[in-house]
Design a protein that fits this description.
single chain, alpha+beta, three-stranded antiparallel β-sheet, globular
C-alpha cells in the first residue's frame, strides 16, 4: 500500500493545494490542529466509553484499550454512548479552529461555513465485518459535490492499527451508484481494481481532506 502524499509544504500555496486535491482527490496534512485540544477531546470521549463499560478495567484511559465484545454502530447500546459524545461542545468546536478555516478558505477562494454535522467513528478492534465499507460521502451529505470532507484522528494511529484509507484518483469516475452493505452507512460502491489504496499512520493534530466523490474506507482495525 502506498503512503499518503503529505501536503504541508503547500499550505502557503493555495493554488497548488487546489491542484493536488483536484489530481489526487485528497490532501493529507500533518500537525494542523493543536495536539493538546485533540487529546483533551479524546479523553472526554474515552471517559464516556469507560462509563459505558467498553474499556478494559485498570488500563490507561488514554490508550482506549478494550476487551469488550464489539458494539455495532446504530444499536441501542451504541446510541446511548454516542449521544453523549454528540453533546460535547468540544466535539463540535474542533472543526471551527482557525487553522482549518484558513486552509478551506484558501482552497475555495472565499469565506466558508463548516457543514453543521460532526461525525465520530468509535470502532471496536477485530470487528471488520462492521467496518466502514468503500463509499463516497456525497450520497450522505448531498448539496454540492465540491464540498470537502475533513477527518481528524483523536490520537496517534499507527498504520498497523487501522484508520481511514483513500482510493487515490477515484473521484475522477464521478458519482457511483451505491449498493447495500454492512457497516456504518450501510452503503458501498464497486471500486476500480486499477486504482491504488493509500494510507499512512496518523498523529494527533493531523487532517485528512477529500472530495465528496473520493472513495474511502476503514482499514482493518
Amino acid at each position: 500500500m502506498k503512503l499518503f502524499t503529505e501536503s504541508d509544504s503547500l499550505l502557503n500555496n493555495p493554488s497548488a493545494l487546489r491542484k493536488r486535491l483536484r489530481d489526487d482527490g485528497y490532501l493529507f496534512l500533518r500537525d494542523v490542529l493543536p495536539k493538546d485540544e485533540v487529546l483533551q477531546l479524546r479523553g472526554q470521549i474515552l471517559e464516556i466509553c469507560e462509563e459505558a463499560g467498553w474499556l478494559r478495567a485498570g488500563a490507561n484511559l488514554m490508550e482506549g484499550l478494550t476487551d469488550h465484545a464489539p458494539i455495532q454502530e446504530g444499536s441501542d447500546a451504541y446510541k446511548a454512548a454516542y449521544n453523549k459524545v454528540q453533546a460535547l461542545e468540544s466535539f463540535h468546536r474542533l472543526k471551527l479552529h482557525a487553522n482549518v478555516t484558513k486552509i478551506m478558505e484558501g482552497i475555495f477562494e472565499e469565506p466558508v461555513i463548516p457543514f453543521p454535522q460532526t461525525i465520530g467513528r468509535i470502532a471496536f478492534p477485530r470487528d471488520n465485518e462492521n467496518q466502514t465499507q468503500p463509499h463516497q460521502d456525497w450520497i450522505f451529505v448531498g448539496g454540492s459535490t465540491e464540498s470537502i470532507s475533513c477527518w481528524a484522528p483523536l490520537g496517534d494511529i499507527p498504520i498497523e492499527v487501522g484508520g481511514l484509507r483513500i482510493l487515490e484518483g477515484s473521484h475522477k469516475a464521478g458519482f457511483l451508484e451505491p449498493r447495500a452493505a454492512a457497516g456504518p452507512g450501510h452503503r458501498s460502491v464497486n471500486i476500480d481494481p486499477d486504482l491504488e489504496w493509500v494510507q499512512s499512520g496518523y498523529r494527533a493534530g493531523d487532517l485528512l481532506l477529500f472530495k465528496m466523490l473520493t472513495i474511502h474506507a476503514a482499514a482493518n482495525n
